[in-house]
Amino acid sequence: MKFPNVIQKTLFICMVIAINTGCQNNKQGSGATSEVDSIRLITLAPGHFHAALVQKSMYNNVSPVVHVYAPEGLEVKAHLKLIESYNNRAEDPTHWVEKVYTGSNYFEKMLVEKAGNVVVIAGNNQEKTAYIKKSVDAGLNVLADKPMAINSAGFELLKKAFESAKKNNVLLYDIMTERYEITSILQKEFSLRSEIFGQLEKGTVEYPAVTKESVHHFFKTVSGVPLTRPAWYYDVSQEGDGLVDVTTHLVDLIQWECFPDISLDYRKDIQMLSAKRWVTPINLSQFRQSTQLDTFPDFLRKDIRDSVLNVYANGEMNYTIKGVHAKVSVTWNFEAPENAGDLHYSIMRGSKANLIIRQGKEQQYKPVLYIEPINGINSNYEQVLQNNFQEMQKTYPGIAYKKSAKGWEVVIPDSYKVGHEAHFAEVTKRFLQYLRESKLPEWEVPNMLAKYYTTTQALEKAMAK
Prior knowledge:
This protein is of the alpha/beta class. The chain folds into three domains: 1-30; 31-174, Rossmann fold; 178-463, Dihydrodipicolinate Reductase, domain 2 (2-Layer Sandwich). The chain has 15 helices and 18 strands. It has helices spanning 6-27, 50-53, 74-88, 106-113, 128-137, 152-167, 182-191, 194-197, 236-239, 247-258, 266-269, 284-291, 379-392, 420-437, 444-463, and strands at 41-44, 65-70, 97-102, 118-121, 141-144, 172-174, 210-219, 221-222, 225-226, 270-282, 304-305, 308-321, 324-335, 343-349, 353-358, 368-373, 400-403, 408-411. Strands 7, 10, 11, 12, 13, 14, 15, 16, 17 and 18 form a ten-stranded mixed sheet that branches. The chain has a six-stranded parallel sheet with strand order 3-2-1-4-5-6. Strand 14 and strand 15 (353-358) form a beta hairpin. Helix 5 (128-137) packs parallel to helix 6 and helix 7 (182-191) runs parallel beside helix 10. The termini are far apart.
């Protein structure tokens, strides 16, 4: 071929490069992304505000155009209103462009159009596991809010979803924000230092080696605005029982802290010993304040006694994980005390010290980590503590310690305390990294299965009583 001038020759070379690059990208499969690819988000039926929190930040290599597929109604409007508030905020505004489709066939249309390559799912949990399975079947990556399964049937379907994701070379991942809470991070770090913590105890049913407790509230503020809950949030057949919802985070933390980077086998490593559940009473006035609805909808009638809605939002489970006794409990109240929010308590019992996170009135309702040696405060232990802190400060500059009643309080600079909403961006960034690598860490999938086996088995045990 002859080239009459330099310009035509240059155009021809560019065309060849573009064709070759396109072929190389196609060979990677739908689950892989390269640095030059644009990750395109799809938001599916955003009935929970967590879907919007994924978009509270912008991300490199992610298209600002997000396709939303949802049923028409207040939920999608509330989602779009939150996105709009992020776009219009004065400090560090986002610039998302939402392309919205609402209609009864929203899910089928999403699967046909495939307008993106990552589906974000955070909403009604009744259909979530089916949405996940069909999305990965269609060759789409999925970033899902917890819980990904709310009963044993859902767990069985979730297993098939992971098999399908592997077959189709796509990633399926859940949003575990609590791994990014600094007190949990440091609790894990100290537990790995045998000079401070010793070895993790095995514990007993009466004195578990690990306990994690959580208190949550139906009426709360999100991004500075009072949160309006959808009515289905009060129906455990749609939202999920308390034993399978927030407990997902607590079970995940136990696995992540006690057995870091170790693949668990739920068939051998988890034994559910006992579980129980109980209700949170919600009167009509509270329900109206939370949902902006004047009456209880018909689907909640089954849970109403003497004009009060009884929500099975609370639960406790006792189990062993690789022989270690663990206890998880969650409590839901309607509204938090003044100046308080959701609360967390955690203890890891070691042969040399206990690592405890407290978040009560004494801590001004902020999580605080304590190191409490088994044999009391002494100069030898404090010297060991000082040496370890000096080493840890290389990774976590600014952390320090001060005396407390039974040991030491870990002093953490405010710069590390970014808050729950900011953790969604951290999870998303990690997921985007996995997308670029086209794989999850080897332990993530088996441990997600172990986690949802634990929660759904707890529900079965509690309901069998």
